[in-house]
Amino acid sequence: MYASAVIGSLLGPACAKLTSHKSNICLGFLGHLCYILANFLPTWGSLIPVSVFIGLSTGGLDMSRGIYLIEISKSYIYRKKLPDLELYGTISFFNGVFFCVFKATHITGNLLSSVIFQSTTYNESVFDGNKCGVKVSSASKGSPEFDQPSKEIIHALYAVYLACSIIGLATIVLGLPYLKKSIKERDSKTEALYKVLGHDTASCLSIMIYPKFMALIPAIMAKNIPLTFLYTGYTQAFVSCAVGVQWVGYSMAILGFVASLTALIANYLAQYTGRIAQFTAGMSVDIATVVIMLLWEPDSRTSPSLLMVVPMMAGFSQGILQPQQQGKHSVLLKLQPVYISQQFTQVRVTVSLFDLKFGALKSNFDTPQDNQQNVH
Q1: Phi and psi at residue 131, in whole multiples of 5°?
Q2: For this UniProt entry, which segments traverse the membrane (predicted)?
């Protein structure tokens, strides 16, 4: 998925020129729809092709979303007759609003999953004696066990997610206006396809050696480390291992709630605290989150409320860092039209490369026997 996302990200600007940014967003939603449908029958033949498709289709999603937010910010400044110096603050503000709404969907989605999972009973005796935490891996002998939900419950959850995705796609198709294209972008439609793809791909790769962007790459990748561990490792090795899979949704809903609230408050306080102080606070909490996950070993006696502390910390840091970093990316190259699409593309490529590397490292801990069990 992430390998194809790298390719899809490089092709994102060309797809936007040949079609539109709205089409990029709709294509990203369509990829998620197909991925949910494939999980109703999770086999190698269904998941692998759909994973490639979702990687390719969502490659331009982040780029087009970022450009929509930039255009909204420019329109706001023009209508309010604000000076151009306010552009960074305005972009950060609208990124904060977007991120707040985006994380709010994590609240509803994860609450729905926990409510559905708790509609059945589980054998809690399997948790007795479980030693959980970062040392838990599928390759370890005596891996902890937890009762799995039935296929009917999982299919009910997928059906709810599918309905939500269809509603989201319909909202984009019917409610999101098209962005006006420049004369240069309109003329690019008449160019040969290979010329558009070649030019935009070369432009994207050239941004990688731009000094200011290179300075941001460690921050982009570091921001995703705790969140990636949280989504992949914490939910299984901490929450599911200690108190059961039915509590995973609640823990992620807490993350979404704290992140949404933090994004709004941090945006307002930025005018008093400054951006550097907020970046420092966010990165410090990120580091503390990783340290806690490395040292903490919960067990079956751990209270579920205590397991919510780490998601709360991650939500606080993400609520600060994601809106501020997106705003910083938007003005990094002074919003020159030739660079905007390529800049967002390279952010997406950087994140995809990190996720690809993390997935490869994580797979090294899986034994062949465990991989076969996971497939079944």
Answers
A1: -110, 115
A2: 40-64, 85-104, 153-179, 213-235, 247-269
Element holding 37 (H helix, E strand): helix 21-38
Specify the pTM: 0.71
Looking at the domain assignment, is residue 246 inside a domain? yes
Residue range of the domain that includes 82: 2-178+191-375
Number of C-beta neighbours around residue 306 at 10 A: 12
For residue 43, is it within any domain? yes
Asked, for residue 326, whether it belongs to a domain, the answer is yes
Instruction: List the pLDDT tens digit at each of the 376 positions of the chain.
Output: 777 777 777 777 777 777 888 988 999 899 889 989 998 888 888 888 898 888 888 777 877 887 888 888 888 888 888 887 777 778 778 877 888 888 888 888 888 888 887 766 665 555 566 678 776 654 444 455 556 777 888 888 899 989 989 999 999 999 999 887 654 555 455 454 555 556 666 666 666 666 766 777 777 677 777 777 787 778 888 888 888 777 888 888 898 899 888 888 887 887 788 778 888 888 899 889 888 888 888 887 888 889 999 999 988 988 888 777 766 665 555 544 445 555 555 555 555 555 555 554 455 444 443 433 333 3
Token pair for 344: 């967002």
Which CATH number does the domain housing residue 338 bear? Answer: 1.20.1250
Could you give the CA distance from residue 21 to residue 207 in angstroms, rounded to a whole number?
20
The answer to whether position 186 is within a domain reads no
Nearest to 348 by CA among 66, 33, 53: 66
Residues in the chain: 376
